[in-house]
Amino acid sequence: MSIARWSETLISTLRDDPQDAEIPSHKLMVRAGLIRKLSGGLYTFMPLGCKALRRVEAIVRQEMDRAGALEILMPALQPREIWEQSGRYDIMGDVMFKLQDRQKRELALGPTHEEVVTLLAAAELKSYRQLPRTLYQIQTKFRDEIRPRFGLMRAKEFIMKDAYSFDRSWDAADESYRKMYEAYLRAFARCGLRVKVVEADTGAMGGQWSHEFMVLADSGEDGIVECDACAYAANLERAERAFPELEPYPDSDKAPEQVSTPNAKTIGQVAAFLKCPPERLIKTLIYNVDGRTVAILAPGDRDVNEHKLARALEARDLALADDETIAAATGGPVGFSGPIGLTIPVYADTALKGLRGAVTGANRVDTHVLNVDLDRDAAIEAWHDICFAENDDRCPRCAAGKLREKRGIEVGHVFKLGTKYTEAFSARFLDEDGQSEAMIMGCYGIGVTRTLQSVIEQSHDEKGIVWPMSIAPYPVAILNLTPGKPDCVEATQTLARELDEAGLDVLIDDRDERPGVKFADADLLGFPIRVVVSERSLAGGNVEIKLRTEKATPVIEKDNAALKIRQIYQDSIKALIL
Amino acid sequence: MSIARWSETLISTLRDDPQDAEIPSHKLMVRAGLIRKLSGGLYTFMPLGCKALRRVEAIVRQEMDRAGALEILMPALQPREIWEQSGRYDIMGDVMFKLQDRQKRELALGPTHEEVVTLLAAAELKSYRQLPRTLYQIQTKFRDEIRPRFGLMRAKEFIMKDAYSFDRSWDAADESYRKMYEAYLRAFARCGLRVKVVEADTGAMGGQWSHEFMVLADSGEDGIVECDACAYAANLERAERAFPELEPYPDSDKAPEQVSTPNAKTIGQVAAFLKCPPERLIKTLIYNVDGRTVAILAPGDRDVNEHKLARALEARDLALADDETIAAATGGPVGFSGPIGLTIPVYADTALKGLRGAVTGANRVDTHVLNVDLDRDAAIEAWHDICFAENDDRCPRCAAGKLREKRGIEVGHVFKLGTKYTEAFSARFLDEDGQSEAMIMGCYGIGVTRTLQSVIEQSHDEKGIVWPMSIAPYPVAILNLTPGKPDCVEATQTLARELDEAGLDVLIDDRDERPGVKFADADLLGFPIRVVVSERSLAGGNVEIKLRTEKATPVIEKDNAALKIRQIYQDSIKALIL
After folding, report:
1. CB distance A47–B65 less than 8 Å?
2. Which chain B positions have a beta carbon within 8 Å of A120's beta carbon?
3. Among partner residues A43, A102, A130, which is closest to B94 by beta-carbon distance?
4. A514 to chain B nearest CA, in Å?
5. What range defines the domain where residue B273 resides?
């Protein structure tokens, strides 16, 4: 492939962590000179970072092609009108960068491309004979993040692989989804990344169903839960839970009874005052949901999950009501709402089903109601799973296992969108009977730059990066410890040339630096295979080979080194293929 | 490499030219389904267009790497401040897209990257030991064109390869410039493009010297001149001309004499009225130049070239003066200015040097002056070559040849920038003696998307595109004329597999279409090698091979076809290497 010399490339390593970097991978990307910050959330890829990025892109491209997806390239600039046509102009809000051209036409910098690609599909895919088709691109996206951070993890400008499938039926769409899902597993594995697939919320994207590909990491911005017994795993935004039978509280058949609870405002204060456990209390929250006012009931020790609530109520717009609305709807002040006697619709968390002997607000200042039996005392419109799942909750799939909370970095996301966009843009095809039908759509994203950084987040040690063979900027670094000695130079160049001819990219550290500096830099930069050429080992006809993942530094006859290294390289690449 | 089937890809050919396309390459890119318009100046690359684009990118990347340039990737979003620091914020004007983020910070969408890269060099290149370095990227650029047109030729969003060299001395900078210049010649040649290198103006980029790489085409937006005898060629913006000795006019020794020229306003009218040739008249134009008012003299039959004028006067800002300024500076109305008696600086085109017996305005309404001898009658501050070169002008280099006007499409541009940016951003290095000096900089651009379209502008016929082998989306198309016949299918697949194994990308036209449709589409799409599999030829154990550039359709034994095609392919690729 190619031979690079340290003295002719641009590698700037730093001894100290950059001040604004909070997580290991961000620190290491800057210290190893892979990226440099231009401004908040905006980074330049330096030569080594760019090489690693191109390798991730190549793997993703190969797996998309193998899955039969067709590469295209859409513009970053998009007319405002198409975002209005899909109804997402307002939903995207300030996350979408907006600008005007010199004719005062409004444009957006694409944070994603459902609108553009569906318009394209509407124009180009007309017949069932042209389906299925999956189109993809590897392209720069823009998002005006509230708080850009963690380097490439949450940047204003980043590279995404986004793919879009168009199908003639729901079954065919499932098949397209499955192909992408499997391509993603292969692509991440080839990048040396271990991912956890979780069920996910569809959010602003809309649609039916989705999975996220998560890299487990303490620094992850996403909460996820996984079952300790079965394969269930889900984003916290979506995670369900099982509801074991409730043990009835003592004296749970008594009639409701109002009691004064002076100076007790929080759940904790009320529970302490009444000497009952917090889970015996029922929280009553008043929400505005698509213009309606509704009451939401949740166990006192649980938080309402608005993602789940919105999905349960099929709500587009959902927010806590203001004081005035609460007073009007309940007749009481904020903090003392309760379900009894309400005329607005009341929705309750499933965990409350069958609960008797509970405590609720009385819609009256400093007052609560004891001995509440929701079935008996309140009019519940519907029961839904609307609270966050928590550690030790029962698994909703196997019921036997317990849920465990983890943190994850989302590197991929696949969505079954259905007809949300194809209806909006009249992306229709003629079926075998000449009937016009909307195509069924899926969309699929990989954060390419985020994937690159996630590899480092998952694969590093105290000395630096530990690159997987497949995306290392250089799989092999040859450290010439005495670049002033002709025989060391010659041995270095011969080995480099042999590796080059065998198809490996090689970096020669030809700097006039102490061995300790070269070793430290090689560890920081994370080359999978480090070869040391020194006068001492050359005297015995040998060179030293060290793998970044191993401690041993075996010597090997220099004439066999190229063959041995090539074998290590190929075995390592093969081991990453699913 | 890969085998694609027409029935599984997305190729939309059109029979008719798109209405908004004016030039052949734009029409063909749309008709062959290589691009689709999203909005004015914004295009999506369809699968075949994307494949060709990637091939151009790969060639450019290889030639950059070979020249020792290091690939990086800089953000498209750039903070406003760095454009103010270079002094180009105002110069770029409305061509640069501007936007605000949610914190109301102003950003620009990079139309080019001198500012970002020089900041980077200032931070990373500190010592003479790190020089020379050339950094490049292949990246999306944005320009708010007044009139986007001609498809990818003048788009709002386009892909550029931009490179920047940093050197320790002017001589070293010349060497970096030479390397890029040669890499450009190789890259364009490998894309199958014939380019003409011309001397060019430096414009808003600033700097010392530059060359443009032009594709000659009637549709080109740039005027260029080339000498018919020597190698001189230049952009009209810069083109010089030689000045032959003037023949004196008769009665050229007479004293100046004012004459009334009623109703004669234009040069043509004055010349007709005075019965003298237009070139005997001297135009006097009043300009504002960086806050000064000056007079510019030009032959009556020539147009002033403001690019050359600005360079001659070392002007940053230059515009024709308004009526008031003209009246104040000359004492006369617009249209009757003349050099005699002016107190403002007067600059004259070199062609006027030694002219006697000329006619000028008299700074008085409806009045001209005869028998003018500029040396005798006017105070000329300096003589410069400030008019456009024209057909039949003498060559400024060899003086023997005549200049010829041509049209060209600029696909590449190399600039010797000097220290304009390195001074502005303190991009300094320590030399061997520990002295701090500004690096000498060069910048180098290839319009990647424009190059792709230029290939088609230069290489097409009445039937469609004629792709060079190196960037054809598929070098080989196999047309199976009877996809219903198993033996045709088998022969097609066998040949495709053999070609695939030999490293060629193959497209199989497996559509159930008439042969005429398949032939027409293959010609339109421009595959360099077309193989026809039909029942008739298969009966004789043969297939038919036709090159897009040839008329003949020789038959060849099908078992030898793969070998033969591979040979044609390799010879063709080799022929493009300089």
Report:
1. no
2. 36, 44
3. A102
4. 17
5. 257-384
Distance from CA of A171 to the nearest CA of B (A): 19
Q: Please, what is the average pLDDT of chain A?
A: 94
Do B268 and B138 lie in a common domain? Answer: no
Strand partners, B213: B197, B412
Is A10 close to B42, i.e. CB distance below 8 A? no
CA distance A282 to A40: 44
pTM higher than 0.95: no
Place of tokens 């020229």: B261
A79 and B8 within 8 Å at the Cβ level: the answer is no
What are the tens digits of pLDDT across the range B47-80? 999 999 999 999 999 999 999 999 999 999 999 9
CB of B157 within 8 Å of a chain A CB? The answer is yes
SS3 B47: helix
Do A367 and A499 fall into the same domain? no
Domain match, A432 and A332 both: no
Dihedral sign from CA coordinates of A74, A78, A82, A83: positive
Q: A140 vs B44: CB contact, 8 Å cut-off?
A: no
- Residue B51 identity (one-letter amino acid): K
Judge contact between A465 and A49, C-beta under 8 A.
no
Same domain, A14 and A121: yes
Tell me whether residues B77 and A9 touch, CB distance under 8 A.
Answer: no
Separation in Å, CA of A570 to nearest CA in chain B: 20
Rounded CA separation A252/A235 (Å) = 36
Q: Are A133 and A125 in contact (CB under 8 A)?
A: yes
Q: Say whether residue A140 is in contact with chain B using an 8 A CB cutoff.
A: yes
DSSP A515-527: HHHHHHHHHHHT-
Residues B153 and B285 in one domain: no
> How many CB atoms within 10 Å of residue B171?
9
Query: pLDDT per residue over A369-404, tens digit each?
Result: 999 999 999 999 999 999 999 999 999 999 889 999
Q: Do A448 and A482 lie in a common domain? A: no
- The string of DSSP codes covering B237-271 is TT-----PPPPPPTTTTSPPEEEE-TT--SHHHHH
Residue A350 falls within a domain, yes or no? yes
Residue B523, SS3 per DSSP = helix
Q: Do A38 and B71 count as a contact with CB atoms less than 8 A apart?
A: no
Residue A163: which H helix or E strand, with range? strand A157-167
* Domain end residue (candidates: B397, B428, B457): B457
Q: Does A124 touch chain B (CB under 8 A)?
A: yes
Round to whole Å and give the CA distance between A44 and B115.
13
pLDDT at site B430: 97
Q: Nearest-CA neighbor of A419 among A446, A404, A439? A: A439
> What are the residues whose beta carbons fall under 8 Å from the beta carbon of B284, sequence distance 6 or more?
B295, B296, B297, B337, B338, B339, B360, B361
Q: What is the ipTM of this complex?
A: 0.93
B36 in contact with chain A, both atoms CB, cutoff 8 A: yes
Reported as half-sphere exposure (CB side, CA atoms, 13 A), residue A139 has a value of 27
End-to-end CA distance of chain B: give it in Å, rounded: 25
| Regions of chain B with pLDDT less than 70 | 203-208, 250-252
Count of domains for chain B: 3
- Return the bridge partners of B142, or none: B157
User: Taking CB atoms and an 8 Å limit, are A101 and B97 in contact across chains?
Assistant: yes
**Chain A interface, mutation test: which of B72, B104, B140, most A Cβ atoms within 10 Å?**
B72
Domain containing A533 — which CATH number? 3.40.50.800
Residue recorded with tokens 């421009």: B526
Q: Which residues contact A276 (CB under 8 A, 6 or more apart)?
A: A359
Q: Strand locations in A8-66, DSSP E?
A: 35-39, 42-45
A29, A56, A72: best to mutate for the B interface, most B CBs within 10 A: A72
Whole-angstrom distance, CA of residue A482 vs CA of residue A37:
35
Q: What CATH number corresponds to the domain at position A372?
A: 3.90.960.10
